[in-house]
Amino acid sequence: AKRAGRGRAVVYGPALGEASRRMSQIEVALRDGLRNGQFHLHFQPKAEALTLRTIGVEALMRWNHPSLGTVSPGEFISAAERCGFINELGELALREAARAARELPNLTVAVNVSPLQLMEADFPERVRRVLAEAGVPPERLELEVTESVMLDDARGAIRRLHALREVGVRVALDDFGTGYSSLAYLRAFPFHTLKIDRSFIHSLGEQSNAHAIVDTIVHMARALGMRTVAEGVEDDIQLAAVRKMRCDEVQGYLISRPMPLDRLKAWLSGRPVQ
Ligand code: C2E
Ligand code: CA
Ligand code: CA
Ligand code: CA
């Protein structure tokens, strides 16, 4: 299958169904949405596995369009990547996350970064500037990248990741275990954190090899000096399993769904924070 990338020509005709009609509506609406402030972040807590103390949040983009309704990031992020809006959207996420970090003392704020953002040579400098303007210490920001950052321009991506480390932000490898050559990337770049994909966590407690895989990832990460996050923890069985395997952090609906900043602040008050 062809990977959707920059400059891919997409032709819509009457023969195409409802799904592609919606796709083209989304692409048209993106520009307006960016101009009219329709995008904002929700935040999902990350907790220390053993104590369930909140130690950070992941910022997740939300789009509420007046007529299209709620469009999922799965739909609009790839549309933004195709249409050349992802840098603008990514910058917006960074700024809003930095603002949020000021209101969330002691918590790390993680932002998802598209591979296309990392292809921009000045991305590390832009991150540094956003943090400086917001007055947020770089170590309060974590950037989550997926293995696909390495597909187009691995050397450039690795150079930028090193520059980001020098800026002082933390770097996490997202959806770990779902890419093609995860281990090669671990050799090429020292991530601070590995986020174990929720497909593995989901299968814990079932009769599957997921347990052996998660156990192996945690051991390897520990040996390489990286922290681990279990993504998509939804029940107590999964929590118990990842605790037993000494995974460092948990994130998922069991702790909380993503929520707007105001609700997060209310949720946090009265909870133990690091
Ligand atoms: P991701 O980075 O892997 O983010 C985690 C996704 O899993 C989020 O979906 C979150 O709501 C969902 N999730 C969290 N806990 C659970 C759970 O216990 N069970 C299940 N089933 N799901 C859980 P969301 O918000 O729909 O985001 C989907 C993807 O869109 C993200 O996956 C990320 O790749 C992308 N994305 C979201 N915001 C941004 C952004 O600002 N920039 C970029 N480049 N990508 C973003
Ligand atoms: Ca993520
Ligand atoms: Ca993930
Ligand atoms: Ca993902």
TrEMBL record:
Provide the alphabetized UniProt keywords: Membrane, Transmembrane, Transmembrane helix
EAL domain residues are 23-272
Protein's UniProt keywords contain Transmembrane: yes
Q: Does the keyword Membrane apply?
A: yes
Write the protein's name.
Answer: EAL domain-containing protein
Protein's organism? Roseateles paludis
Task: State which stretch of the full-length protein is shown.
Answer: 467 to 740 of 774
